[in-house]
Amino acid sequence: MQSIVTNVEGDGRGRSKEGAVLWVVGCWGVAVLIAGAAGAFVGIAPPVIPAVVLGTNVLLWMAYRKLPRFRSSVDGIETRRILWFQALRAPIGAAFVFFGAKSVLPERWASHAGWGDLVVGVGAALLAMVASRAPSSRLARRAWGVVGLVDIVTVVFHAQFVALVERDGRFIAMAGRLPFVLIPLFIVPLVFATHALLFARDAGPLDGARAS
User: Fold this and answer.
1) In sequence order, which residues have a C-beta less than 8 Å from that of residue 204 and are 6 or more positions away?
2) Which of 128, 137, 169, 197 could cross-link 132 (Cys pair, CB 3.0–4.6 Å)?
3) Counting beta carbons within 10 angstroms of the beta carbon of residue 35, is it exposed (0 to 12), middle (13 to 18) or buried (19 or more)?
4) How many domains does the chain have?
């Protein structure tokens, strides 16, 4: 646990260790891009999305536990970089709101997902600017993390309701095509994984005793 709480302030000490994670994530993203371009996800079954989220996070957790090089690479990622990744939710949220207003996406789902991601993404960007091991910074990240995790969980479940119960075909029509397919099959699983990583790093008493 000691190693996972380091590299918060972004001093560059972990950059040389990030190669394994970047390689895995890069290959994953390229695979989704290629499959998406080939039309492999057109008409994707709604349950596939939560299955991918759960399955990839289980695989990442197993790799972290069993592969020392991968674990070292994960531990070397600066907390600020993780927060900047989470900040991507802001422009994604803006896109949801825009396409919902145009009726390209289901309006209620787009409003829920869009405004939630906008707030969480902006919050992540603000936290990235002041990332430290100070108790106040850690407490802020914990509060933001709870809000961000609740948001993404409810968005995923809401998407299943829209697709399976309301049977709104607009969601599936968009979800299986580029570039939107990257969101449920690549970005969302990483959002869950990075939330777990941040919670682990900020665990423990807020006494400021452990510096980065």
Assistant:
1) 5, 210
2) 137
3) middle
4) 1
24 in a domain, yes or no? yes
- 79-82 contacts, C-beta under 8 A, 24 or more apart: 79/7, 79/8, 79/9, 79/10, 79/131, 79/141, 79/198, 79/201, 79/212, 80/8, 80/9, 80/10, 80/128, 80/131, 81/10, 82/194, 82/197, 82/198
Query: Phi and psi (nearest 5°) for 6?
Result: -90, 180
* Residue 209 forms part of a structural domain: no
Per-residue pLDDT band at 49 (split at 50, 70, 90): confident
Mean pLDDT of 82-95: 96
pLDDT band (50, 70, 90) for residue 17: low
Taking alpha carbons only, the member of 102, 194, 116 closest to residue 159 is 116
Instruction: Let me know if residue 206 belongs to a domain.
Output: no
pLDDT for residue 11: 45
